Amino acid sequence: MLPWLCGIQEDYKTLEIAKGGSWNEISAAHRDLYIGPATPSGLSVNYGRIPYSFPALVHYNLSNPVAAALVGRTKWSCGSVATEAYKIITNNKYGREACKVQEDKVVAIFVPKFREMIVLERYIFGKNSFFNVMCDTRTADSIRLEPTIDEGNNKG
Fold first, then answer.
1. What residues are paired with 22 via a beta bridge?
2. What highest taxon heads this organism's lineage (predicted)?
């Protein structure tokens, strides 16, 4: 559900935390939308690992070249990535604005993509759908996207 942000070492193959997998493994996982070889911190994935992509995955585009490089969808050596990274690093105002624009895009697309995933998951898994079992409901609109107080939301 969340991107796997990672740094890469000078050889363009080894991740910042080498036990987290190789750049090729992480890039393929983000491109093909399946679980990576380990957690970003290098720990093995012990629970819930399935040997295939979750069938109800939905893809959304990270339009910023640096965002794409952070999750391994493009290489840091790509010209547009280097140019954008340079602007972000050398101009604080530009960097803050670029991050805010990217954040706004991700936030705006998250709920529609989450609802799309719910519809797909219900279609694929039918009566065994997590959302049918969890909510005993049939529409994506009735899924509560905000947690209750018991789930960590102090607002109620």
1. 14
2. Eukaryota
Degrees, nearest 5: CA angle 109-32-39: 85
CB atoms within 10 A of CB 70: 21
Q: Residue 45 in 3-state DSSP?
A: coil
Give the pLDDT confidence of 11-62 residue by residue, as tens digits. 877 777 777 778 788 778 877 777 777 777 777 777 767 777 778 888 777 6
Residue recorded with tokens 């995933």: 117
- Of 151, 48, 67, 66, nearest in space to 109 by CA: 67
Q: Is the pTM of this model over 0.90?
A: no
- Rounded to an integer, what distance in angstroms lies between the CA atom of residue 34 and that of residue 128? 21
Return the structure tokens found at 55.
């069938």
Give the integer Cα–Cα distance in Å for 41 and 77.
23
Could you tell me if 71 and 4 are in contact, meaning their C-beta atoms sit under 8 angstroms apart?
yes
